[in-house]
Amino acid sequence: MQMTIGEKIGFFRKRRNLSQEQVAEMLGMSPQGYGKIERDETDVSYSRLELICKVFNTNIQDLIGYGEKTSFTNSNHNHYVGSNGSYHNIVGNEVIAAELEKLKLENEALRKEVNYQKEIILLLKNAQTLRD
Q1: CA–CA gap between residue 76 and residue 83 (Å, rounded)
Q2: Which CATH number is 60's domain given?
Q3: I need a labelling partner for 59 at 20 to 30 A (CA). Which of 13, 14, 88, 103 fits?
Q4: Structural domain of residue 46, as residue ranges?
């Protein structure tokens, strides 16, 4: 499942233990406006992405390409190739922790979807019972 840009921004924020309010303040915008970015309710300009990346101490290619990187190990050094083809040295545990956090977020989203579907089934069963 591919993450949206808002989900990626939210992931980077959570990984740095920042609240939406803190990031909004750093960006000079309202918490409501920033929340719309994470919920993909508004388009994000390139200049705004640059500011967001500065807050998260990353670059746009890594933010946009997050979750779409190819990881590999070579001679006991951990590396990855970014979505733009750039080559980076990184600490392996950081990548593993980031991927684990991403999987946790995806798992939580799927769990919420399953619960939502269960509620719908229950409502449909109740409606059928009332008709019978």
Answers
A1: 23
A2: 1.10.260.40
A3: 103
A4: 5-97
Asked if residue 47 is part of any domain, the answer here is yes
Show the DSSP H helices in 1-132 as ranges: 5-15, 20-27, 31-38, 46-56, 60-64, 92-131
pTM given for the model = 0.51
Name the 3-class secondary structure at 89. strand
Average pLDDT (8-33) is 94
Kindly list the distances between the CA atom of residue 62 and the CA atoms of 23, 40, 57, 82, 129, in Å, as whole numbers in the listed order.
18, 18, 10, 6, 52
* Among the listed residues 84, 12, 22, the one whose alpha carbon sits nearest the alpha carbon of residue 49: 12
Question: How confident is the model at residue 41, as a pLDDT?
Answer: 94
- Asked whether residue 93 is assigned to any structural domain, the reply reads yes
Residue 113: inside a domain: no
pLDDT digits (tens, 9 = 90+) for 97-112: 777 777 888 888 888 8
Is 130 inside a domain boundary? no
